[in-house]
Amino acid sequence: MSAVLTNVDSPVRMGILTSGGDAQGMNAAVRAVTRTALKTGAEVYAIYEGYQGMIDGGDGIRRLDWDDVGSILHKGGTVIGTFRSTDFRERSGRLRAARNLLAIGIDRLVVIGGDGSLSGLDVFREEWPSLLADLVASGELDQATADAHPHLMFAGLVGSIDNDLVGTDMTIGADTALHRIVDAVDALVSTAASHHRCFVVEVMGRHCGYLALMSAIAGACDYVLVPEQPPEEGWEQRMCTELARGRSAGRRHSIVVVAEGATDRQGRPITAQDIADVIQRTLHEDTRVTILGHIQRGGTPSAYDRWASTWLGYEAAQEVLTATPGQTGPVIGFRGNRVTRVPLMEAVAATRRVPSLIAEGRYDEAMDLRGPSFARDMETFRELSEPSRVEPGSDAKRIGIIHVGGLAPGMNAADWAAVRLGISRGMTMVGIRNGFPGLIEGDVVDLGWSDVEGWADSGGCDLGIRRTVPTVEMLYGVSRQLESHRIDALLVTGGWNAYQAAHLLHRERDRYPAFRIPIVCVPATIDNNLPGSELAIGADTALNTVVDAIDRIKLSASATTRSFVVETMGRYCGYLALMGGLAGGAERVYLHETPTHLSDLAADVAWLQKSFAAGRRLFLAVRNERASENYTTDFLAALLNEEAQGRYDVRTQVIGHVQQGGTPTPFDRLLAVRLVSYALRELETRLTSGSDESSYVGLVRSAVRSSPLSHMAEEVDPTYRRPRQQWWMDLRAVLAAVSDSDLV
Ligand code: ADP
To answer: Which residues, including other chains, have CB under 8 Å from residue 498's CB and lie 6 or more apart?
Structure first.
């Protein structure tokens, strides 16, 4: 037997571990937990290979320094390893784990894992006092040590690509997995279309259809099978009818997405091969199966999984360090774009209820536990994917679609959604090319279901976009064209100028009867500077471009000692700069919202000199393009260069217009679908009631909402063209906690 363990007066020490299935973004969380805790003076220990590291002790538990978690933000998987520990399922294993933790004085834990890992944590927490009592009784632990650490304090973070934890909107890894799947679906579409083929794609999700449904929407697929809603009898024939109808409506391919846990109503698994066989047999289509498997877990984390996991890690460290002994720790997750705390076992129990509800045939309740948007998204998918049976009547309302502002990735996805949803709701959708100048020239075309084929995954804006807000002289021409094309309502998609233009038409409706129509604006700009929406279509894609650029920049500098000043777009809105800096691992971010003074720059330079003298090899600053009129990117670079004292060289990188290009991310496609779907409902309601109200829609927390355009003036700062309140500004504190400053 080992000697009696004494550990009474240890400083605050916390452990961090990743357990169960790995998920992209776990590293960002490990880094944030570690750095946040180190900044408060606590000691942090990595527990390697999940719970097994606690049981093995020795090298399984190692102290982490600031630099130990450097250069891991961009890595997939988990650098501290994960494991499915059978020993931890036994009390004897947990007894050894408690002993090994107390040998170091650790009584605080952050666990990042799925519901299995979190229930393991709950068992450990509950048993802790009795484990200590056993250790004292067996003479392995002295009573004073047991008394000094009477409770285990903890926080759980959900690492799960399935996005299956009830009570939180997004789990660590789900967004990246969606990226992998949608990339694969996009790739399959091009080959499938070339051969008129059908593909059945199996994605992960034993009990959760999140990945399947979201990838089916974002990938513009034809059919989806999820565990929560097994198809009714006869689904095979119905599926084949839909696929055949899609083909006759002009699709060159069909894609069916199936979650790995999909079953029929008798609980019999429906595999990808089963589906392929049905299609082959019924439609005589060349049908192939693609099982994506572990690809979904792999690769570099998306921008979201980096900034969100960093934020969660920051909160988890705070939670654990300020916990009062005896208080039960929470699971920390996201709800409505904000951090939320859910009681540990409540979240796990609700998550585990889903498979039972499915087994009992209580499908609606299972769907409800996925949150209100899941059932709505399922319905929207049906509308999008089923070529409409509705032949618009001669009295169908004609909805004009127009774009104003700068280009944002996801605009085509918004138009694809508008046309398909509009048609399926009995409207006639009218494309207005090239913004208001195009409208004045009469460049207007009716759009059919198949005219938008292939738009969901394409960047750019096929209808064309102009920045022009109509001048007084143009208003007559605009009104003439709206009348001659019998436009009953307008869907205006774009940025700040789109909102200005819509507001102008609305204000002028007394003078121009053609403007007495309902108008709804949909936010689409990479600047993310619009009122009434926490995120605009395109911002997530642009952010991923920024983060990708930063990854490359960092690699390019890896063989030297270098300082980089990276400039992002955004006009006066610092969203891309701050979030890019957070997700890219920048040390400094310069924003227009928080003016930089000479004294700040002097402090930065002094710190930088000290830091490079102490061995730093790379410094990264991200600057918003309009952070300061005078302290420009070149000025900052010149300043850093002047003060380098030969310790480092300096480079600048203006990321530029690539931020407006590229294939829209899954999130931007989904956001486009949700916002457009809501906007069309608004137009429908107003057309029915004869209202000529105008509004803008947006995502606030997790709900889509609408505000009258007349509210815009109250919500925005017109000089700098951004909302007065910007939710993401809170993340400056997170950046400060995880970026190197005084810890040299
Ligand atoms: P996930 O965390 O991804 O759901 P698992 O369900 O495999 O993955 O759980 C991961 C690990 O968590 C298990 O291997 C085990 O070590 C621990 N664990 C899970 N459930 C329990 C439990 N009821 N009691 C103790 N440990 C558990």
So the answer is: 403, 404, 405, 492, 521, 524
| Ligand 1 atom 24: residue of nearest CA | 120
Exposed / middle / buried, residue 209 (Cβ in 10 Å: 0-12, 13-18, 19+): buried
Q: Does residue 26 contact residue 159 with C-beta atoms inside 8 Å?
A: yes
The residues that are catalytic are 162
Q: Whose CA is nearest to atom 16 of ligand 1?
A: 85
Q: Which fold has domain 13-171+301-337?
A: Rossmann fold (3.40.50)
**Closest C-alpha to 707, from 676, 682, 689, 677:** 682
Give me ligand 1 centre to Cα 54, in Å.
Answer: 14
- Across the strands, what pairs with 432? 444
Q: 139 near 98, Cβ under 8 Å?
A: no
100-112: b (≥16 Cβ within 10 Å) or e:
bbbbbbbbbbbbb
**Which of ligand 1's atoms lies nearest the C-alpha of 160?**
3
Residue 109 to residues 37, 50, 148, 248: CA-CA distances in angstroms? 12, 12, 16, 58
Separation in Å, CA 423 to CA 39, 224, 426, 450, 662: 56, 21, 5, 11, 28
Whether 51 is in the pocket of ligand 1, judged by its Cβ within 6 Å, is: yes
Which pLDDT score, from 0 to 100, does residue 209 have?
Answer: 98
Cβ(164) – ligand 1 distance below 6 Å: no
Can you give the pLDDT at residue 389?
A: 65
Amino acid, res. 615: G
d(CA 53, ligand 1 centre) in Å: 14
Number of neighbours of residue 531 by Cβ within 10 angstroms: 23
CA distance 528 to 533: 8
| Cα–Cα distance measured from residue 242 to residue 236, given in angstroms and rounded to the nearest whole number | 10
Q: Which CATH number fits domain 174-297: 3.40.630.30, 3.30.70.2190, 3.40.50.460, 3.20.20.450?
A: 3.40.50.460
Q: Give me the residues paired with residue 717 across strands.
A: 722
Distance in angstroms (rounded) separating the CA atoms of residues 547 and 530 = 22
Q: How far apart are CA 109 and CA 30, in angstroms?
A: 12
- Which residue is associated with the tokens 């996801």? 410
Q: Is 352 in the pocket of ligand 1 (CB under 6 A)?
A: no
CB distance 60 to ligand 1 below 6 Å: no
Measured over the CA atoms of residue 480, residue 483, residue 486 and residue 488, the dihedral's sign is positive
CB 494 within 8 A of CB 502: no
pLDDT attached to residue 743: 43
Domain boundaries, the chain: 13-171+301-337, 174-297, 398-526+687-716, 539-662
Do the Cβ atoms of 335 and 169 come closer than 8 Å? Answer: yes
- Is this structure's pTM higher than 0.90? yes
Question: Does ligand 1 lie within 6 Å of residue 117's CB atom?
Answer: yes
Instruction: For residues 409 and 622, give the distance between their C-alpha atoms in angstroms, rounded to a whole number.
Output: 22
Name which residue sits closest to atom 27 of ligand 1, judged by CA.
120
Name the residue with the closest Cα to ligand 1, atom 19. 116
Cα dihedral sign, 74-77-78-81: negative
3-state secondary structure of 407: coil
Residue type at 270?
Answer: I
Q: For domain 539-662, give its CATH number from 3.40.190.10, 3.40.1280.10, 3.40.50.1820, 3.40.50.460.
A: 3.40.50.460
| Environment class of 473 (CB within 10 Å of its CB; exposed 0-12, middle 13-18, buried 19+) | exposed
Counting as low any pLDDT under 50, the low residues of the chain are: 1, 743-744
Q: Is ligand 1 within 6 A of the CB of residue 120?
A: yes
For residue 156, the CA-to-ligand 1 centroid distance in Å is 13
Helix (H) or strand (E) holding 447, with range, is: strand 444-447
